[in-house]
Amino acid sequence: MRPWGLILTAISLLFPFIWFGGVAQGRDVVAVASQYMGIAALIAMAIVQVIATRFAFVEWLFGGLDRSYIVHKWLGILAMGFILLHDTIDAEMPNLGRQNMLEELAETLGELSLYGLLILVVITIATFIPYHLWRWTHRFMGAFFVAGSAHYLFILKPFKNGDPLGLYVSAFCVVGILAFTWRLLPSAMRPSRSYVVEKVETTGNALSIEMTPDGKPLRHRAGQFAFVSFDGSEPHPFTISSASSEDGRIRMSVARLGDYTSRLHKSLKTGTHARVEGPFGHFECPKKGPQIWVAAGIGITPFLAWSQNLAETAGPVHLFYCTRDLNSAAHLEEIRSVADSFENFVLRVHTSSDQGRVSADMLLERSGLDANDVTVSFCGPKQMRKDLLEGFKRQGVTGRRFRYEEFEIRTGIGLRRMAELLFKRINLPDSVQSRLPRQ
């Protein structure tokens, strides 16, 4: 993750302290602290709205859209903490005057924003709640931010909207509202491309979807992903599993991982119209040096695109394709064909059904590469990534040489683990613990 986005976020949250010294003079410190909590929540939520636009500069600041969404999640949780503290701590100050009807309405809007955001944050981090329900309710996040902004603008406070502090926070409110409005626009009114599904076929346990542009094509780099909406459905992110072509054709390979992708496997037909927004992502093939690529299941998709762009001088590259069995391996013959064409590209298929789990030691031994020189690129399940990362660290492969993409738009905060620890303290039976929702 690039530091620039985090630095700017921290500066944005701390900058109001320049003026809070004057605001605090002669006033209750606790009440002033509550005022800051409310302001910090608004600033954090405004940045959350900006990140949700998926503008190119957001990716640049945070080092990729995947990293941006991590910040998006934690900023939302931080904002919720600020709001709860603001509501819990008495923020009322004497000598501010009596409220009129508009200011009383602003108080009500503040309460509405608090409880609305609290519900939405809980839905977001409780990842056992279905994706389509989360996606639908998440739209209201911006509406509650608008309510919170109205609360700030019209409520009685120890400074005026025209003061430097007031103007600073108001600017974030305006930017956040504009960002929310942008996301409400139909996809055809935002930067996107029109495509038509040309070919649909099953490969292993994945659905291969080839599309041709209906107008100006998408230009992408190997390994990037895009958000796709088929026939007006909700957009979902999928890695582009083909390198960029002259005619703009793209291919996406979709595993059956949930309700939406299961429906695609059953009902997607040729001729279906699609809107493609992107490309996104900074998961790109290293230009030189010995490499190990580790693909688990549908994690093969970025490496398919990488392999099509390999230079004759690249490598050596060892691709470990981890799959349950050979019948489940998507695009296996295609990747074998690429391996046959490049002397420095070696494909090793690892079937967990009869070979067990992979480890960093095994990968280094089978590739014959030196841990001091190799770069590892991984795409697959989170727990597998963590295990391999720890294993490669023990072998001397630094974190900078273990590359991956956090391809999770929505993540939890360890609710299952927290619940397990709680239930162990109260000696809840294992049979009950086993029914806890998994993230």
Précis, in short:
Helices cover 48% and strands 16% of the residues.
3D structure, described in words:
It is a single chain. The chain contains 17 helices and eleven strands. Helix 3 (29-52) packs antiparallel against helix 8 (140-154) and helix 5 (65-88) packs across helix 6 (101-125). The strands form two sheets. It has a six-stranded antiparallel beta sheet with strand order 4-3-6-1-2-5. A five-stranded parallel beta sheet has the order 9-8-7-10-11, sandwiched between helices. The longest helix is centred in the first third of the chain and has 25 residues, at 101-125. Helix content is 48%, strand content 16%. It has 439 residues and is α/β, with parallel strands linked by helices. Helix 11 (301-308) links the parallel strand 7 (291-296) and strand 8 (317-323).
Task: Give the N-terminus to C-terminus distance in angstroms.
Answer: 24 Å
The portion of residues forming beta strands comes to 15-25%
Helix content: 40-55%
Alpha-beta content class: alpha/beta
So how many helices? Answer: 17
Low-confidence stretches: 418-439
Question: Order of strands across the biggest sheet?
Answer: 4-3-6-1-2-5
Round the Cα radius of gyration to an integer and report it.
25 Å
General shape: elongated
For this structure, the quaternary state is single chain
Question: How would you spell out the order of helices and strands?
Answer: HHHHHHHHHEEEEEHEEHEHEHHEHEHH
The strand count comes to 11
Mean pLDDT over all positions: 83
Q: Major beta sheet, specifics?
A: 6 strands, antiparallel
